[in-house]
Structures are given as C-alpha cells and as structure tokens.
Amino acid sequence: MSKRRLGSVRPPKRCRSDMDNTSTSDIVIINGNSHPDLANMVAERMGIKNGGCSVFHKSNRETIVEISDSVRGKDIYIIQTGTKDANNNIMELLIMAYACKTSSARSIVGVIPYLPYSKQCKMRKRGCIVSKLLAKMMCTSGLTHIITMDLHQKEIQGFFDIPVDNLRASPFLLQYIQESIPDYRNSVIVARNPGVAKKANSYAERLRLGLAVIHGEQKEAESDEVDGRYSPPPTRNSTPQHAPMNSRTRTTSVSVGVPEHPVKVKPPLTIVGDVNGRIAIMVDDLIDDVQAFVAAAEMLKENGAGKVYVLATHGLLSSDAPRLLEESVIDEVVVTNTIPHEIQKLQCQKIKTIDISILIAEAIRRIHNKESMSYLFRNVTLED
After folding, report:
1. How far is CA 163 from CA 64, 76, 77, 251, in A?
2. How many Cβ atoms sit within 10 Å of the Cβ of residue 162?
3. Which positions ≥6 away from 110 have C-beta within 8 Å?
4. Which residues are 214's β-sheet partners?
5. pTM confidence score
6. Model confidence over 233-252: pLDDT tens digits?
7. b/e burial code for range 84-96 (CB count within 10 A of at least 16 → b)
C-alpha cells in the first residue's frame, strides 16, 4: 500500500460569503439621529445589518440610548456626524460611546464625517479652543479611534489622545470636475480667500489648471474688533520722545513703553489671477453661511468668468443659504453627503450631492482587518 504524503490533500476552499461573514462577524454598526441614511448605506456596502440602537429624547430633552443587541467583545462603529443640531449630535455620540464602554465592547470607533466645532480650533479673544474640549470629552466617553473627513485644520488631530484618521474627499470632487463639468480644461481653480489658497493650489496642481485668489475683505475682521484688551498702558510724560541708543549694548528703548499694534487695513475685494472667459471653480472644506461665496461669485462674473461652480466637502447650508444660492449667480454647488441636506436640495435646484459612503465603508473594513490606511489617501476612487 502506497503511503500518502502529508499535506497532499488540500483543504476545501472557503466560499466568498463565508470569508465575508468571518471578517465582519465582530463588527457592529450603530448610529444616532444625525444621519441614519449614511449609516444604512455604509452598512449595506459592507454587507452587514445595522445594529439595533434607538436614540430618543424625553420630554425634558434628556437623551436616552438603548442598545438592543449584545456588544460584548465586539468592535463597535458609531456613525454620527455634525449637523445644525450640533449639541444634540455630540451628546448622542458621547452617550452611545459610554453605553458601549460599560457594556464591555472590545473597541469603540467614532465615525464622524463632519466634526462639530472644528472651526473653533484657535484661541480668539477671551474665548477658548472648543475643539480641544470636545476631543477630551470624546476620549473620556470611551472612544478608542476616530474616523473623520476633511478637518478644518489638520492640527485638530493633535487634540485627541486616540488615533484619528482624517479621510479626504478631494478624489471624489476631482473626479466630478473631470466627468461632470463640460470643458473643464478651460477652468481656473479659485480660492475665495488666502486661507483656502493651499487647498485650491492642490486642486489646481492635480488638474493642471490655473489658480486665482480673491484677496481682501468686505467687512471688518473679527480679530480687529475692539474688546478692551487693546487699551494701551499709561504713558509717562518724563519719558523723552526719542530715547538715544546705548552705544555699548546697541539697544534702543521705545518712547511710550509698550508700542501699539498697527491697525490692519483690509483692502477691497480683488482677484489675483485671470478668470476672464473661463469657468471658475471655488473649492473649500465647508459651506455654511454663503454670503461670502455669493459675493465672490459676483466678483468673478464681473471679471468675465463664464460659469461659477462651488465645491466643498461639507454642506451645512444653515439658515437661508438655499434661498441665497438659488438667487445668486452661482451655477452649481457640489457637496458630499457627510451632512444630510435633502431639505436644502428641495429649496435649491443648484445643489448636487456626491456619495462618499464607499470611502467610509472601506476605512471601517481596513481598520477592522488591521490593514494599512495609506492606500485610501493615494488611490481612492468612485469605483464600486
């Protein structure tokens, strides 16, 4: 009898469905009330069921969270974005995270496509850095990882004591420009203020297009408002008007103690760059109050721009933004679905939406399988 060699019999191949079930068996996706449609799209793309979690408010506006499925020893992904009801969105996220923590979840990942209070990441006047406070609250609640998209400032990641993956929506917007804007080669990328010039320059380099920057302000900047801290110290009459320089130390003293800060003079709106006869594409990370975009679009039209497009990752579109956009000279506004804006789309026919659920689903899959995330920053596309 011939002996069979060890290892000569191959094990049966596992079907794809079994592999998918094995890789996602420990994943639980739950969501609050901020964007349930996005959570359902992400769960559908991953082929798993949205976990049973109900979030509601009592008559006194306290938030109640009830998780019906077991989360013990599982990886929880909480999809909760920021909307116009930012404070409730935050409290829902914190309570959901703490509920999972006290229910012995293995890991709790907060999927926050738009991070609320991200614009309050700098010290202004006698205020505070609210983004830092929010980061501390999220870490304390039990979150072990954060997935977000296009932070207002990348430095916000340093406020967190846990890993933060800041995904990019630019490949989706770049693909939209190439496929949906006719004759986009005759376009110019526009930064509506110098602060957005770096982002606009990145778009211009990737598309090999020209760049224009709108410089100047129509109103007084917030940093120039008098709040009492600019009162100069009292001067001494005995101080000479022009103090001589010490010849040995080469040090000159000032005449009135602490010198005053010179007042900033904001020039009128001007365009640096040629937009005459071209398609103007303004890019930004957030569209909320649209007055600045409308004013910039009017100036672009006055300088000979053919069409004006506005592209941004987050479309908050607060207050009467849809009406202002509909009445403006802007031809089209393109945003992603990081924030729900279906009501705004009914009020303004110019608003278009790009679905980024595939990017979030792939980020969740890679984190769960402990794969590298750098691929998403280089090769992400709209292909399903």
Report:
1. 28, 15, 14, 49
2. 14
3. 78, 80, 93, 97, 138, 143, 145, 146, 147
4. 271
5. 0.83
6. 555 554 445 556 666 666 76
7. bebebbbbbbbbb
